[in-house]
Task: structure prediction
Amino acid sequence: MKLDMPLSLMAGIGPKRAEQFERLGLVTVGDLLDFYPRSYEDYGDVIAIGKVQPGKVTILAKPTTVTGRYVRRGLHVTEAVVADTSGELRVVWFNQPYRAAQIDTSKEYYFSGEYEFARGRYVLNNPQTELAANVDPNGSRITPVYKETKGLTSAFIGRALSSLMPLVDDLPETLPPELCKEYDLLARPAALRAIHAPMTKADYEAGRQRFGFEELLAVVVAAAMNKRENAALEAWHIPFDEAAAQAFAGSLPFKLTNAQRSAVWEIIKNLEAGTPMNRLLQGDVGSGKTVVAAMVAFMAAQAGYQTAFMAPTELLAAQHAATLDKLLTPHHLTVALLTGSVKPKARAPLLEAVASGAIAVTVGTHALIQPTVNFHSLGFVVIDEQHRFGVEQRRRLMDKSARMPHLLSMSATPIPRSLALTVYGELDVSILNELPPGRTPITTKIASPNSRAKVYEAADTAIEAGRQVYVVCPQIEPSAAVPGKGSAKTKAAPGGDDHKSVVQAFQKISGSLLKHRRVAMLHGAMNADQKAEIMAGFVAGEIDVLVSTTVIEVGVDVPNATIMIIENADHFGLAQLHQLRGRVGRGKEQSYCYLIPATSKAPSRRLRELEQSTDGFYLSEVDLELRGPGEVYGRAQHGQLDMRLARIGDVRFVERVQKAAQWLLNSTIDLNNYPELASRIERAKRVITLN
Result:
């Protein structure tokens, strides 16, 4: 078997079929072998139609009628009535128009899917379908289910793969056999047969285990190699000045939490080590990460080094600059803000001051990585919300130092432990798991759209007491809003949800719900000056209700805001909801977060979890479970890392792979003998590196 052979040369495929395979990204035999099933159907557990109960079922039946029609634009429905000797039932497929031509009423089929009540009747919904003649009565009844495309069914893909199975013994191994033996993994040929032609559930689980292990192994080895390479570099030596540290801590208007003190001490030890620090500081919203960064920047300045502090948005950069200025000015250190909005006339002297070393801490957005920005002695780099920056952007900032500077990445989005062990494995991690004293936990409530008026009555009561309110919507009105204060001139879409877009909600709130209050709106389509003006008004207490998109997710600190209303809350992810909730509860007053779903149906699990917990680290684990690593880590990176089968949310599995990675790195095995694994590792090293 030649893995690079085009599929068009395979028996039974040819050029036309090859084009269909190409739509799935499959060009060669190797691509096809690596095209894993998305699920499996067990046609051995068949039930008679007369005994069918709601839930997952598999039946063996003959269609009596099959029809297909478009019920409206974009929605095609195929319906069939199928029967066995015990009775008949109705089958429905949505947007699968090929089913009508595919199903022959003279033949028997296995149908496997959910039997449920929908649109006033019980139906078998979107079942997988397999011609009974294709299932060997004496062989395995477990059938892999592959992603399909127009003209190319899962069954055809399965038959193409079946024709390759006798040849897989000739394939070279991609993992060292010693490692497979040590960690009880199937050899590559056996794993391919187990995953594409399983006899039992245990077979395909073992196949998935083998290939998932291999995917994650490359990432963990890459992280360990990155960490070793970083440790071999020489960094600026920033000594610990105990008296200065005590003076800084003593000057704060509050007492550092134990978690903050511990994080600062871990960082200080890194700065003294002589090798570049590469540390992730993760803490829940409001846990005081900026204060930790400020203290380290102060220590760096005492040793003669400058700090660059990069944030993803101008709002967030301005917020950090204001906080750092308040903390560092008493110590005669200058803080500057550099963003795209800084006018040329002001930019020139600012760049000159940075280059001369007169500015101790420069806070900015992507503007910091422009070629015109030069530092006198850059020794410490802070990157906030680091997952929003690419490898190249981080590198360009650190290249502005004569040596590798010390790097502190910060994240207000807690990272699940399994991700911290793998894709962030090259980092040392400090965790802030305490809220500063005086903070009152936020009370979160799910409110039905039917009780929306009561929510806004509660908001009105808070405003009467001198407090302020956020209202967050998932989108901007597509027809473009008139930004700022006053009345919007855009009408809500006929029949649309009045609270789905900022403009529509603004009209409803300022026109009826809270028409006697000062209401403004904010969204990403506004220019920087408009956004700054609105935020300044809200911070100053000149606006009672701010109706916004998620531009206020991070970087807005208004202690007087005590009510957060999230409209169409089920349109947001769990981590994002938690971030939005963190915009209130910044002061000593009791704060509330109201989650209003789009419908009055039973709320989703993520809303229920958010209502019950304020622990961002717990919620991050739930988020990983609900959405999967591709969503949580980022689609692009996850795709580049090729983790399709790795159970990255399973901490035991991750820890087992970690042990295997150390075993491999400590062995005498030459990775050059396994080019596919070596290539995977090199690719992962580039994707996950944070310095």
Observations:
- Residues 443-613 form a domain with the Rossmann fold fold (CATH 3.40.50.300).
- Confidence is low (pLDDT under 50) at residues 478-496.
- The CA atoms of residues 463 and 544 lie 7 Å apart.
- The first strand starts at residue 39 and ends at 42.
